[in-house]
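The record is kept unedited without comment:

——
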Amino acid sequence: MEFTVPQFIEKEPKIVGPFTFKQFIFIGIAGGLSIFLFFTVPFLVFIILAIILVGGAFSLAFLKIERISLPVFIKNFLIFITKPKIYLWKKKTSPLKFLPAENGKEKKKLETKEKTEEGRKPKLKVIKGGRLHELFTHLETK
């Protein structure tokens, strides 16, 4: 049995003529403001402001930067600017897992093994507020 795969899923429906609802809102607001400016400011100022308003509205409605619409691009830019940019890696510690010993002999073997390993390893004291920790934080934040 064959199924048809839908095409152009990302396409918004055309509501008002050839425009989607968002495009119509951007262009309608710019047109309304231009009409308001026509009756309130001198003609030369009206022409300059109307060109800026209508140009901005058409760019908001139709301009895409790498397949992302301009309003979404501006929103993403503002979110990026306002969020902090310092990322520190912090090692997550996991709890130790203990395996139960089946009989007393295996338990004794594990204890003797641990004692011999402890004798070989040098004991180190780790200080959280030490110079190494400060250096690591300094390198990660720069």
